[in-house]
Amino acid sequence: MQLPESEVAVLEAANADEATPVDALAAATDLPPETVTGAAFELEEQGLVAVTERVDETISLTDEGRTYVEDGLPEVRLYEAALEAGADADPVSMGQVIGASGLEGAEVDIALSNYARKGYGAIESGEITADPDADPAADPESNALESLADEGTLEAGDVLDQLERRGLVEVAESTVREVELTEQGVTELMAGVETAETVGQVTPELLTSGEWEDVEFAEYNVEADAETVEGGRVHVLREMSERVKDVLVGMGFEEMDGPHADADFWINDCLFMPQDHPARTHWDRFALEQPTHIDELPEDLVERVERAHREGVGEDGEGYHSPWDEDFARALALRGHTTSLSTRYLSGTEIGEIEPPARYFSVEKAYRNDTLDATHLLEFYQIEGWVMAEDLSVRDLMGTFEEFYAQFGIEDIQFKPHYNPYTEPSFELFGTHPTTGELIEIGNSGIFREEMLEPLGVDCDVMAWGLALERLAMLTTGAEDIRDLHGTLADLEFLRNAEVTY
Amino acid sequence: MPTVDIDPDELRELTGREEKSDEELQEDLFGLGLEFEGWTDEDEFELEFAPDRLDRLSVEGVARSMRYQYGDSRGVHVPSTNKADWTIEVDESVPDERPYVTGAVIRDVDLDEDGLDSLIQLQEKLHATMGRKRAKGAIGIHDLTMLKGSAATEGSPTIRYVGVEPDEDRFVPLDSDAELTPAEVLEEHQTGREYADLVSEYERYPAIYDDIGLFSFPPVINGRRTEVSTDSRDLFVEMTGTDQWTIDKMLNIVCYALAARGATLEDVRVEYPDSELVRPDLSTKTKRVAHDRIETLLGIDLDPDDVIDLAERSGLDAARSEDEATSNEESSITPLEDRDGLEEPDGPADSDESNAEDAASTGDLVYEVTIPPYRVDVLHPLDVIDDLGRAYGFNDLEPRYPEVGTVGGRHERSRLERAARTQLVGLGFEDMLNFHMIDEGQNYERLGVSPGKGVYGAGEPATIKEPYSEDYTMLRTWTLPSLLQVLENNTHRAYPQHLSEVGFAAELDETENTGVGEGRHVGAVLADHEAGYEDAKARLQALARDFDVALETPATEHPSFISGRAADVVIDGEPVGVVGEIHPKVIVEHDLEVPVAAFEFDLEALR
């Protein structure tokens, strides 16, 4: 039969009468021990050798143990100092004896705790006595340490256990493998075993010389795990955002872009949010300290928006009974929602007048000064979308959102009538969780009010909706703590292991 | 969202639906948009509601809405009021900041504990919502029998709304035994301290007097003398505020709630120095709603009778507009054009007329819709259509995909971002997504830079007025600080850690309308045992090649980088960033034990 070189060597070095340790085989074959082990297992699979394992204990001195071999055990040194001080006759002050012994730091405690245990004497109320009959030369622990230092071995037993407890010796276990020829191995050897030439790596020389035709390729353990590779990868939340953008572009939506730090005018006033609305005066807004106000707003638009707030829109419209102040509208804040982009686009100031029909979207950051916890961040991505057309109905709104959510496996959307200052009718959207089956809130939607659209110069219907991207991502990835995903506390391990979204 | 607590037994009693189980009630409430959140300690429903229907802030209002929902009530109901006996006289001394007052007398109330609790809750919820924490409107409810009004105006008992000096007079406030001046109330009384900010800037404090003396210090606290208890039979309700409409509406909601418990309402005269009002103002409003708009917004065809029915089930009244005659005239002309394919109308005149009527019913028909006085949320005919939709049942509508063709597409900026990110990932970077808010220490100090011009990444910050915490006080001016923080938080994870971020950065820029220059930066860090300048430069070069731009890297000094191993990133002749080996003091500052090579530049340069 033909075998790889290393296997032939091991087979020939092994013995049928007694098991040979791998180390001995390595010495005999001049191969590294791991190669011998590998070859032995290969041979065992073919039934040519038997591999047995046993566990050997090796006992070695710790650093502390080695110190005591040289200096003597602390309790012995204490005893000797005590004898010197005459403590075999009368109790002597501890301080004096310790001083004379030269023991320092932790050694003192060690000496004291072992002194009485081993019958060297007694310690009582600060005084020490020494037993004249004690014999340090016969101290079993001391002797065991010395014999370990000299001969490298030690009998198992109480003394060894005691030394191990004291941290003076270490017992290490190692596995020793031994190889023995089987009958089949002997038979094959008798019949003759040849070396097959095996090759580890396919090399350019091998290929160009044509030598590859005559060689045998060493077999690999193809089932073993390979090294971990961390390639580059797109952030899991970004993947989600890309997917949302794909879906929306596919549904005919065009993307919007605009400032993160913006005037309240665009963030709130254009949305027909009264200036004394709690959300505008409250905690959850990130007002800027520097800079404080936007330089310019379109004058005629400011006038129209103010009129809508004060007087309402249309024959039977009514405004809010709330104060309205341009300076307040010009104050800058980090946008609390990306609807500020929608108001900018709808007003015609961003890309010119938009004619119906039109669909626009953004997946951009919004900022809320809310509690920071596993499901809420100060910064989150808001998916914002709107459709502009003549005579849109609630049914069109429902149909659009059903279509959008179906793309993410969320079916059976329910529409709960809701209230937003800038939409009417308004709906909270509920959907069934794709895995748990729970009914969960997945967005907010509605048809923009005329008080919002008329000042912006829009004279047809616009329906809009929004939801947090993180919410969709948590739903579809199963992430439980949003902070693992987003921000500087991100756990690379979590991101590396996250399932790809597509 | 706000919540309101409702006793289910009271709800059953006030709706007359004793047979409803708790679960059925919860389901019916959900239909009204009142979501059951859980039970309170007093075995009441805690309901979450959207803050539009403020007439549902108490069990009486909720019960009213449910009766409409069940069909047990229909149309607008306005309680009658008796002629005014009492007068509120508004003195010229009243503080300019809080000039308005309104009021009503309520007689023959029979308040048990539950009724009193409900009234107190309604008062608190109205304060929290419409009253804007009492700043815009504040409610005081008094036991009428404890008031003594002199015959100041022709035999009518009168209370007076005035302004007083902070220490001008004394009274015993609720929850106190001591006589205090208004100024002392703000300092010493718990409620006084809570609301002190509302009036502390005033020169004169609002106060209400009867013949006996000062009995109320709005919007802070009432006097103990007129405190309402379950024994009270007649009440005086007064409200002060910064807007007459707001307090009148709050008063209407309170009046409706008490009337629902069988009380009798009585008008009050409000005498301003130059005008006189009679309150409560229970007049209704009218909105003209076009039939066509109802149909297009709901997306369904409706019979006019159905519309009227839906309105009445919403607690509204609707009638075909009296202007319908004119509408008919117009519509009798237009429909002729629509009748293509029909025979020339040569039939009898009355058939023509009926055609015109049909056209009117689906075309120019307009309803006069009456809005009851407790509604505060109907600003526009749209709001009426929303009510009709709710009564119809929005979830009964069949969704349809709008047949409107538009062309979708990505914004150029977002396409560029995606392209840069894709190339970085191909170069082996793990894409990061960090917060845009950061603090000065992280953004500047820990990188060894200070705000100012001349050093890439260290622009002047846009700062946040009231930050969530000291970790988020400004917008980041560059991305490297965030990336270094990620490295710092992941020293226990396997290396190499090659991270990149294509993300937002901002700094003060006077040339911008907002004063904030916002941009996208491409930031990258290479943290591994062998990372060096060349590794960063090599990847930078690859990006430049990918986007076909000319890259130069002249040596520079940058405090975040090792001197002699840092260069400006110059793309197509413009300095747009920095590349180099991060300085050991920055590495150690971030508790890292591996070298870090890095670059950052403006994404715009790849365009």
If strands are numbered along the chain, what order do they take across the biggest sheet of chain A? 11-15-16-20-19-18-17
Class by alpha and beta content of chain A: alpha+beta
Shape of chain B: elongated
Q: What sort of overall outline of chain A do the alpha carbons produce when their principal axes are compared?
A: elongated
Biggest pleated-sheet summary of chain B: 11 strands, mixed
Instruction: Tell me how many strands of chain A there are.
Output: 20
Strand proportion of chain A, as a percent range, falls in 15-25%
Would you give an account of this structure?
- The complex is a heterodimer of chains A (502) and B (607).
- Chain A is of the alpha+beta class and 502 residues long.
- Helix content of chain A is 37%, strand content 23%.
- Chain A has 21 helices and 20 strands.
- The longest helix of chain A is centred in the middle third of the chain and has 15 residues, at 236-250.
- With 607 residues, chain B is of the alpha+beta class.
- Helices cover 31% and strands 26% of the residues of chain B.
- Chain B is built from 18 helices and 27 strands.
- The longest helix of chain B has 17 residues, at 244-260.
- The chains are: A alpha+beta (502), B alpha+beta (607).
- At the A-B interface, helix 12, strand 11, strand 12, strand 13 and strand 15 of A face strand 15, helix 8, helix 13, helix 14 and strand 18 of B.
- Strand 13 of chain A pairs antiparallel with strand 20 of chain B, so a sheet runs across the interface.
Keywords:
heterodimer; A: 502 residues; alpha+beta; seven-stranded mixed sheet; three-stranded antiparallel sheet; B: 607 residues; eleven-stranded mixed sheet; 26% strand; elongated
Task: Detail the topology: elements first, then pairings.
The complex is a heterodimer of chains A (502) and B (607).
Chain A: E1 2-4, H1 5-13, E2 20-21, H2 22-29, H3 33-45, E3 49-61, H4 63-71, H5 74-84, E4 92-93, H6 94-101, H7 106-115, E5 121-124, E6 127-130, H8 140-151, H9 158-165, E7 169-181, H10 183-191, E8 194-196, E9 198-199, H11 204-209, E10 216-217, H12 236-250, E11 254-255, E12 261-263, H13 264-267, H14 278-281, E13 286-290, H15 299-311, H16 326-330, E14 332-334, H17 339-346, E15 358-367, E16 379-389, H18 394-406, E17 414-420, E18 423-432, E19 439-448, H19 450-456, E20 461-468, H20 469-477, H21 492-497
Parallel strand pairs in A: 1-8, 9-10, 11-15
Antiparallel strand pairs in A: 2-7, 3-7, 4-6, 5-6, 12-14, 13-14, 15-16, 16-20, 17-18, 18-19, 19-20
Chain B: E1 3-6, H1 8-15, H2 22-31, E2 35-39, E3 45-48, H3 59-70, E4 81-90, E5 100-107, H4 113-128, E6 137-143, E7 150-153, E8 156-164, H5 182-188, H6 190-199, E9 205-209, E10 214-217, E11 221-222, E12 235-241, H7 244-260, E13 264-272, E14 275-279, E15 285-290, H8 291-298, H9 304-313, E16 317-320, H10 324-333, H11 335-338, H12 349-362, E17 366-371, H13 381-392, H14 412-426, E18 430-431, E19 437-438, H15 440-443, E20 463-464, E21 474-475, H16 480-488, E22 497-508, E23 516-527, H17 533-546, E24 551-552, E25 561-571, E26 574-582, H18 584-589, E27 596-602
Parallel strand pairs in B: 4-8, 4-13, 18-22
Antiparallel strand pairs in B: 1-3, 2-3, 5-12, 5-13, 6-12, 7-8, 8-9, 9-10, 10-11, 13-14, 15-17, 16-17, 19-21, 22-23, 23-27, 24-25, 25-26, 26-27
Helix pairs in contact in B: 1-3, 3-7, 4-7, 5-6, 8-13, 9-13, 10-12
